[in-house]
TrEMBL record:
Protein name (database record): Cytokinin riboside 5'-monophosphate phosphoribohydrolase
Matching Gene3D superfamilies: 3.40.50.450
NCBIfam families reported for this sequence: Rossman fold protein, TIGR00730 family
GO MF, one example: hydrolase activity
InterPro entries: LOG, LOG_fam
Top-level taxon in the UniProt lineage: Eukaryota
GO biological process, one term: cytokinin biosynthetic process
Length: 231
């Protein structure tokens, strides 16, 4: 196992997207993880944004752990869901140093990643990325863990989610205190500066400055179990 001081699970797309800023944000994050000796825990492979962030960690001399379901290994990895017109340099050097764990199911993949991480960062992605980010946030809300969830809001990608959370709070489905379970990194107001912004350092600072107990968890999962008898 890696000697990196703590793991960060990064959720992101297996496509690169249509805007270069998505990939540059991923590269910035990967370089920062390596610089700060944080183990990258991710879904494995070298496609899309996943390949950019993992390649940047390797380039910076950092440690990478991939967690891959056996069905994807048998199929040769995840394909790009959307073919991008944006040309992105993928650093393939050092891929042999990636430690891979093969699991049976997608659920096992998510549990393994969460257990090996002390925090979570979301980059742009699709349905899988959305589901992973929201699941670890739900686990925070339920009190299953108390770990930071940080979203890199490059080009305001995550803004619709922030709006949806606020709408659900207004409608009475999410407690106002639970809004703090996710921290959005917005970057410069001018989107033209998003390609050069240091998203990685901002993400590391957000993880390090996270205050435990932000969300007033709904349940306590430790301690003695109680058996309920139906009367």
């Amino acid at each position: 196992m890696s000697s990196a001081k703590s793991g960060v699970a990064v959720y992101c797309g297996s496509s690169t997207g249509k805007c270069k800023a998505f990939a540059t944000a991923a590269r910035s994050l990967g370089l920062a993880l390596a610089k700060h000796d944080r183990l990258l825990v991710y879904g494995g492979g070298s496609k899309g944004i996943m390949g950019v962030v993992s390649g940047a960690v390797l380039e910076g001399g950092g440690k990478v752990l991939g967690v891959i379901p056996h069905a994807m290994v048998a199929a040769g990895g995840e394909d790009e869901k959307v073919q991008s017109t944006t040309k992105v340099y993928l650093n393939e050097a050092g891929r042999e140093k990636v430690e891979n764990i093969v699991v049976e199911t997608m659920h096992e993949r998510k549990v393994e990643m969460a257990q090996r991480a002390d925090g979570f960062v979301g980059l742009p992605g699709g349905f899988g990325t959305f589901e992973e980010v929201l699941e670890v946030t739900t686990w925070s809300q339920l009190g299953i863990h108390d770990k930071p969830v940080v979203l890199i809001n490059v080009l305001s990608f995550w803004e619709p989610l922030r709006t949806l959370i606020k709408s659900s709070i207004d409608a009475g489905f999410i407690k106002p205190s639970s809004e703090r379970l996710i921290q959005f990194i917005d970057g410069p107001e001018n989107h033209e500066e998003h390609e050069s912004f240091d998203w990685g350092t901002a993400a590391i600072e957000a993880l390090d400055n996270w205050e435990k107990g932000r969300g007033d968890p709904l349940f306590v999962w430790s301690g003695e179990r109680t058996t309920y008898t139906r009367t």
